[in-house]
Amino acid sequence: MQNHQEYLQIQENYINLTPQRQKKEPINLQNGIVYEGQWLGNKKDGFGIQTWLDGAKYEGEWKNNRACGKGTFYHANGDIFEGNWQDDKAQGYGTFTRVNGSKYSGYWSNDMQNGYGVEQWQDGSKYQGYYKDSKKNGQGTYIWADGSSYDGSWVENQLDGYGIYKWNDGRRYEGFWKNNYIHGKGKYTWQDGRYYEGDYFEDKKQGFGIYRWADGKIYEGEWFDGKQHGKGKYIYTFGEIKNGIFQNGKMVQCDDENNNLRNTNCNVSEKNNNNSNYGYIN
pLDDT at residue 64 above 60? Predict the structure, then answer.
């Protein structure tokens, strides 16, 4: 294992001393800071190691008294950043490893995650995609520890725009999101074959939509607050169609044989239907 002096010597092979650049012994700076490495005049320049009173340490390249180039910063709490620096800030590609086991490898700008990167958490969750000012922003894929996943658009750490969410139990939603809500047009499919395709408002079916049961029966019409509400119709597998008015998930008026709305006996013909209760949908 290399000792401290051997490490310094190896780094100096990459950053050559010049008549102007000089290596100096450790120097005590203000507030308990100690710097050991290369100088250009009276400024830190080249390779050097600086330690702080709280135990933090930076070892890497310097220019004009600032961390600039490749270097590693050891935070006092145990977190580590290794990568590129400019004017004392992370800039370019780098890896930040937290003491709790989470890790980010990707691009930085102005000390914040900016651009493409991959972040992993100690529970096994993982995100790969784009960041802006250390928030997920743009296209990205997040995989949760339980196997659920989201692949799509993000805005400031929230699901926003078009994306596909897959639950670990087989459910799937493909469509639009807003502020982490299913919002706009999309298609939600259940593991037993049911699906809803239409409008959503903050996670609830609202507007126009089509709901298809696993056995092929269909409701097509208006929705409000997650329930059939307004004009709609049932389309049965044997061909019969029942138009009507719905309130809170139940048909309250339906067409008679003359296409006139009536308020009673809206069930489909008993001989053609084994189960006419297709009202409120969860």
Answer: yes
